[in-house]
Amino acid sequence: MFRQRGPSPDRREVNYTREHVAIAKTIRRRRRVVRWINRHLGGIRALLFGIGVVWILALPLEALWRGTYVDEHALQPNQVNTYWDWSNVHRADRYLDELEQMVNSTQAERSDYLQRAFSASGHDASNTSTSTYAHVQPPRSNGLEVILVSANWMSRESKPNLRGVAILLALADFLRGQNYWANDLVLVVGEGYLDGLEGFMQEYYDRFNGVIWTALNVDYPGHSFEHIGLFYEGLNGRLPNQDVINSVAQIARWSGGVTTRMHDIEEQGYIGAARHLLNHAAYSAFGRASGAHGVLAKHRIDAITLYCPNATGPHGFYTLGKTIESTLRSFNNLLERLHASYFFYLIPRSGKFIPVGHYLPAAILLGASVTLGGFDCPDPVQGLIWTTPVVAITILGWVVQSPLVTFLAVAAPKPQGTARRSFLSLCHLFFGALIPTLAMVNFPQAIALAFITSGHLAPWRWVRWIMVGLNPALLGSDLRREWETLGNLTWVGIMSVWVPLGIVAAM
Amino acid sequence: MKLLLYSLLLSAVASLATFASAQKTVTAVHNGDVGKHTNNWAILVDTSRYWFNYRHMANTLAMYRTIKRLGIPDSNIILMLADDVACNPRNPLPGKVYANAGRHLDLYGEGIEVDYRGYEVTVESFLRLLTGRHPDHTPRSKRLLSDSSSNVFIYMTGHGGVEFLKFQDNEEISAFDVADAIEQMSEKKRFNKLLFMTDTCQAATMYSKIYSPNVISTACSQIGENSYSHHNDMEIGCAVIDAYTHHVLNYLETINKTSKQTLQDLFDDYDPVKMLSNPGISTELSDVPPAEILVTDFFGGVASVEMTVPSLVIEFADDIKWPEAKKRAPRHAELDRTPYRRARPSTPQSLRPTNLDTSIMKGGNTSPLAIVFPILISIGVLTLTARTIMSVS
Amino acid sequence: MLLWSSLLPILTLVKATSTYDESFHESLTLHPLPDGRLSVLFEFTTLFSSTSSSRRSSTPVAQSHHSLTPPSLLLPLEHNRVSELTISFVSGRWDQRRTGEAGPLHHESGGGGGEVRGWLRNNQNGKPDFEAWTRVTHALGGLFCAGLGPSEDGDSVNTFGHIYPAHVSQTNTSHFFLPQPTLHLCTENLTPFLTLLPSKGLSGLSLLLARPDLVFAWGFQSEGIEVIMPSAESPQGRWRGWWEGIVDLVPPKGGDRSFSLNSLFKKNVPRAFPMADSSVLKVILPEQEGFRMNNVPSKTETKWIDGRLRNVANWDLSHGDMAGKDISFWWDGEGDFRHPRSFTPPTVTLFRTVIEPFASDGTFSILIHNTGDETRQAVYSEAWPWWLQAWTHEISIAQDKVPSPLLITSMFYEPSTPPTASITTLHLGITIPARSTLQLKIPFTKLTLKYTEHRPDAERGREIPSGMLTFLDLEDSDDCQVEVSVRKTSSDTLNRSRCSRREHLYTSRRLVDLPTPDFSMPYNVIIMTSTVMAVFFGLMHGALTRRWGYVDIEVELDETDGAVASNATKHTSSKVE
């Protein structure tokens, strides 16, 4: 194995051994390929971008889907008898009558009524500044684990969630005296749509010693319903463990006798699936929660919202009560946090899902198409120096909390020549790396970021100017308010990624 | 060269012959040791935890109740339950475990002794139990104090696979470990006969590696087959018994302490249709066929008593001070009942020196491979030598 | 001592007729609670003198006589030179607010889960005898079908001696304490408990207890034994077993809360156990008016229970004339029970939780609420597993949200020695001012566990034992011995929180999430290691066997820079394999 050191070869000689010729051919071929790629880089980038777009358009096709199943054996959905009966429905109706008198009451009055109702059922009740809650303590439970059930005062239809609160009160009455719960239950009525529950969670740790693993949110504004809509997006695009959705769907179907839909949309075929995915993207891309359950996501609680849209249909308190009771019994069976099923998925239709491996390549391809534009960097130092005005304007934008600072970049000095090429390539590399990173955590937001990035860094000036014109300030100030109250990171993302992109495009 | 060839051939033939004859001597040595058992031990292991594995604990507890009914006392039963379902807060019938939805018999009852509970049920503790290698402070109730005249019944249930059994969803015991542990028991003379019963998926693979004599094994399913639960109880919310154990227990319900049914009757009662799988039976390691072994030899605590002398004379010493009777004489017979553990069994075999002579020969089943291998090796050697001879010339 | 001379009243009852000085006393205490529930406590006390009769007989063979005492319990204790031992199992949790009581009826119950603590005599070198402690805990663990030995969280700790002082002061003993928060109760713990009693669950009050289907439906179950072995200084030994639970008196669908012995235990008053020297049914009468019973008690006395003056009705069941009868209790004029909206909490309440819970750290927040008029002195103690490390320099205490560091008068901290399993102990001497709420904050961080140290249910988290508050200023003064006649009008509350025998208050246990690794990791690690090894091997092999040389490559026509192609060969050095 030791090399034989001979005399150094004469550099002016031509060498003809077969080995040399073979190697020379290899090196030549390699160089040709690289040169070809470099010549056609624009085309390759466009091709990757095109494939990425086609992949996204192919997501509503059934070939990429898989059937859902309940993975955690402990849940055992539908394996237990339910005891919710018409006497509980009657109590819910009575509570509903009393709540209907309180539609125009103040928060203090409502809270007082709810606390009295919960106490009359035999539970501890109290309130925080934004919510009222009851702590159900079953006799044999340790208090170490807690299941949360919430019904906020405002429904997603901006009407009072009267029947949701009524069924919560009836549930409190129903749970008393039951001896087979291993978890405590906390029943929360939060003010507003999301803010009440968020305020409750901020004070939860001071008041309770138990750990919450799963939760349910009930939204029932109308009279009767014929199907239940399930909403699962959480804040910042964080999704609950898929077992929660799958078990609730199965339980509603077999124990409750009612079908469920995702997002309350049910349509068949490609268009229906595309609508589901767009609906999901409309929430996740902005980091918004699709129901009050979403504010629980950052506390590592797997939760969904059961929404009962108004219909003349046959179901009411009885069905919903059985569904909720059977779901809570399944959650009660859990001895560990949910960890078996998927945390990253897209749902194009009830009963089907798209696993990570089937949708992530789209984002990777889009990210790659941006990253490939960053390999031509003749002078990195110069490029770095030119990022300073970008960073400065971004920080200024954060201080004044407005994305309009992008337009300041029009007056900024512009790099030329190799400095410009280096600067742009560094930008391509940086923003191209962000897209796949974000895709794992929040796929719709990553796709949106990919399109925004590709637009801002496009080679054609007119595209760039249009993108600068579509300033994020057009989105309004809701996102900023959500960042301050709920912790929605989209605002931070806009100020730290979109604004710099606009600056780069304007330079 | 030809000499070399012939000598190799001769050595191959000679090794085969000695091997074959060795088999015969093994069986001859073990033939004398047949069938004197004076006590029974049982090890019942449930290896899976969590509420939804209620049926595994019900399996084990039903087996526990059956062997208690047939006479094995708590002191001779090692019960290992990896979780607690009777007093689990999720159990709507607290303190009770049922093996059927009709709830005929409460398996937990009022007197029960669980020796290994919860996190103590591990592969290590199971193997230590079988081999008797405990730290000094292990209490008696956690030790297998069997001797050379004990019939030991091992029952294991849980989730398993090909040649392994899962303990608590976290670790696995392999069929080789079980076989080696049983061999250690055999060498230390910790059992007279052993019945190894498993109820898991692909259970027959668990006993496929056992190589010690006097072991009968049976399992609920073959390789590639799962073990199915029998039925659910909708009040409790889980499946309550497995099909195989349900069937075996139905049969054992017809047995009482005086029954003369044999293990062959138990095996004949197996019904693959009802059990939803093909049960496995392995009796090759046992010299005594199952038709000559009573079911109560393993499942019951029946022992025969021999009178060695026709009568006994007891003499009292003169200076014994008998305690004075208490002022209030006990009126009830129950007070005479001593609840304490049975008197000490004989010295555990683990403390006696092992007799190594007979243990070197690993008798039992000679798999066909043991005969084919030497043949193959000798053929290979022969062809190699032939080739080298050819190439050299 | 803080013993309250509890031995004195019992000793007066002992009849000195039996040769072995043994006597057995049993009692059942019922205490109706304000939220429609009932606290039930069985206590079985056996007094005995030394069981070994070496001083009596002349033979050199050691003899041990047991008539009412169980040898399976006492022999291991004697052989291992145990002076006192307490084992307690608690399943469930105690709600201080709704019950109005700071803890269960039997004050020696520990925090949640299982707990073993005791005083053992030192070995020959005068050092704590760890081997004896191991033997005792394993032997009793085998007896009670509960794993009482050292756990994965740590071995025993020796710093709780002043928290649990010895009832009989001895020299040359050391204290051992081992909390096991994961233990829970089931029939296999009840069966040996009953067999240890002389009545075996077959007659007397233990007959009511021998129903596991009823007992394990109770909330907050607690079982325990406490043994004080006789010694040269105090020849009277005592072992006491207790079983406690909470029964919900209101039916599931609502109703009234009247109850009777039959409705509780499915049996009437059982026949008396003949060997019992006393057999008493006590009912602690509620402070509100309206409580009635259908049988006149033998005796009603007034006692200080937990800082409040209460009336206790006693029925003497040892005569046998009560056997077979049922005693019922009800509230006059109360129909269906209506749960009260507010409750009077006990004078001092304790609550522990974890605020700011992150993946790798958090902060314990302990709230101590004192509604009384007196300043209290107490010690707050914690015992943590080795993987929980507190930042002790950041411990802070605030009174009504105002930081008051002077309220912590002393601190004793014994850290664990990770990664060996060991327990950290922390004792803080605290002054609790009158009518105040204290918040004690202890920040902590969680260490990383090895892959193999995780439990089978690793995603659940791990339980931390309860924290406990021990009062140092309980009273035994004349003020606390009040005759019934001295009691003033009902408007005088006579609430002296220090006239209590309850030394310890416990928080509930806590489930702490531990960051778990990816348990499919071994497979992935093997694959990755194999890949890395293969690639590394390939590189190394290539580097070692590669030859370097010069290769001519012709320049192509369309190379970059647009330079005119020259046929001059460019000498380029390249790797040659």
TrEMBL record, chain A:
Keywords: Coiled coil, Membrane, Transmembrane, Transmembrane helix. GO terms for biological process: attachment of GPI anchor to protein. The keyword Transmembrane helix applies. One of its GO terms (cellular component) is GPI-anchor transamidase complex. InterPro entries: Gaa1 (IPR007246). Signal peptide: none annotated. This is Putative GPI-anchor transamidase. It comes from Kockovaella imperatae.
UniProtKB/TrEMBL annotation, chain B:
Residues 327-339 have a biased composition (Basic and acidic residues). Residues 327-358 are annotated as: Disordered. GO terms for cellular component: GPI-anchor transamidase complex. GO terms for molecular function: GPI-anchor transamidase activity. Pathway: Glycolipid biosynthesis; glycosylphosphatidylinositol-anchor biosynthesis. Residues 1-22 form the signal peptide. Keywords: GPI-anchor biosynthesis, Membrane, Signal, Transmembrane, Transmembrane helix. GO terms for biological process: attachment of GPI anchor to protein; GPI anchor biosynthetic process; proteolysis. Residues 346-358 have a biased composition (Polar residues). The active site is at H159, C201. It comes from the Eukaryota. The chain crosses the membrane at residues 369-390. Belongs to the peptidase C13 family. This is Peptidase C13 family-domain-containing protein. It comes from Kockovaella imperatae.
From TrEMBL, chain C:
GO terms for cellular component: GPI-anchor transamidase complex. Pfam families: Gpi16. Residues 1-16 form the signal peptide. The keyword Membrane applies. It comes from the Eukaryota. One of its GO terms (biological process) is attachment of GPI anchor to protein. Residues 51-70 are annotated as: Disordered. Keywords: Membrane, Signal, Transmembrane, Transmembrane helix. The chain crosses the membrane at residues 521-540. PANTHER family: GPI TRANSAMIDASE COMPONENT PIG-T (PTHR12959:SF11), GPI TRANSAMIDASE COMPONENT PIG-T-RELATED (PTHR12959). This is GPI transamidase component PIG-T. It comes from Kockovaella imperatae. The lineage of its organism: Eukaryota, Fungi, Dikarya, Basidiomycota, Agaricomycotina.
